[in-house]
Write a structure and sequence with these properties.
The longest helix is centred in the first third of the chain and has 17 residues, at about 55-70. The radius of gyration is 18 Å and the shape is globular. It is built from 7 helices and 10 strands. The protein is of the alpha+beta class. It has one domain: SET domain (Beta-clip-like, Beta Complex), CATH 2.170.270.10. It comes from Chlamydomonas euryale. This is SET domain-containing protein.
Amino acid sequence: PVSLVDVPGQGVGLSATKGLGLGDLLLVTPPLAYITEEDLELDEGGDDDGDGSELLDAKFEALQAVLLSKKYTRAEHAWLDALTEVAVAEEDDSNVADGGKTQPQARDALRAGAVPELSTLIMKEGEDTDGGQAESTLEPSYAKRLEGIVQANAYEAASEDLDLAMVGTGAAPASEVMGLWPHYAMLNHSCMPNTISYPHKGMLITRASRANISNAAPLTANYIGDLVLSPLDVRREA
């Protein structure tokens, strides 16, 4: 029910391909990489100052390490390169669009025709769309670019979805989750988003969070968390 489209002033985004209702399933997508609490290296009694910054930094570092060490299919590498264009263009943060996820010039540089088909990541893990296997790792020189990709596009949550975990195995959900789901990264920001996403067993599930979403309507997410309740000038700085 979704497609990649060019969005004036924001470059590429996702839109509805039919009318949607509250709770309608939009995407169930695998990550390029995914980490949980078990992957984190935290110093006991660190200098977090109670703001969660040390934990967040540890998540970013762990996710980057996984991305640097894994082998990629051609489709996965194409998605990573598509996200790179956004991250690299974001380095100059002067001129951020009001309420937008990235600068207008960054999103304008990334057109729907330059992004892989949405279906190319919906495949067996480690297998390419034509049946080929994952075969290449990233060059070490990619590390700096990767930092920008993760900062701009990663999804982070305190845990996987509790209800789904209990309905499934009954085991506690994985905690301190962070992953890079390229499909989710195609959603543009809105302070009044019409989608909600939550992780479950490594997959990211995205549903409509509003009723009566019309055909061709832009699909959006909230990228600034609780700051969405802050005054406009604070949201712009975020």
